[in-house]
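## retry 2 of 3
previous attempt timed out at serialization; input unchanged, resubmitting
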Amino acid sequence: MKKAAIILTGILALCFAGGCDDRAATAKNLPKFIKRLDSPDPEVRLRAARALNNYGPRGADAIPALARLAVEDPDARVRATAISTLGYIGPRRDMIPVLVHALGDEDSSVRGHAAMVLSKLGNLSEDTVQVLIGWLADEDRFVRIRSAEAIGNAGPAAKIAIPALVDALDDRDSGVVYSMAKALGTIGADAASATPKLAAILADSLSPTTKAMARLPTARVAKALGQIGPGAKEALPQLQLAMMDEDPTVRAAAARAIWQISGNTVDTVPVLTECLDSMMRKTYPNEDGEYELEPNGPARHIAKKTLEEIEAASSNDPSE
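## retry succeeded, writing output
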């Protein structure tokens, strides 16, 4: 116990000396932190794994030890932190077996961190996506969200997850629905089978009786429908309603989706133009307790991008 306390004190000393600071995580301290990963004290291993975050790609020498902890360490906090640090060092394809193994961990934090690192890798195999599909219904929302993100970034193999992603749109957690819609939108045209459910979610979120948190996925669902493209044309009535929403971001996202699906510029350009000047209430009040207005960044970004794309498409159209 005394030896572990000395090691822990040494780690803290290294941190104060700059070893835990991204600007001063020096090469000479790296072997010391790697050695700490073998400590019998879980607190020492945990702090060492956290300290290695700051090395980024320069911490590659720690990958074998971290991978071992991710699989074998008896402390779930250490396993989760080891996986997270592998992601900070820079996810590599040779880490995939360790990450897939961690997806089956009994601790949800470990599973969630494994999915999060896999999402950074992209271009996953169908076998890996199949494992991720199994966690879309995990009891922990963090795991469900991170698994959807990993699938969305998986590349062509993500197509096999479309039915499971559509089923997961029934989740009662709006944050999870947001992530499922994002994944389906990233898949694009092949996810056209999700249109009926996405349209229904959009309609429900626009209801005046819908609570604020339930409206979280509204703009994201509109975006997903636009990414699906012409195959989502049956959602145009709901998107037309969304284009009249009080939220400028929802209006802009709906207008963009309508243009992407149908090419309609008559109805969408005026809305997009109006969104360029949209304002939103600041998050915090001023000294008088009043909420001032500031430019609505998301709405303006969507509107500006879409208007530029419409103009480019028009200039490239020989019929114009």
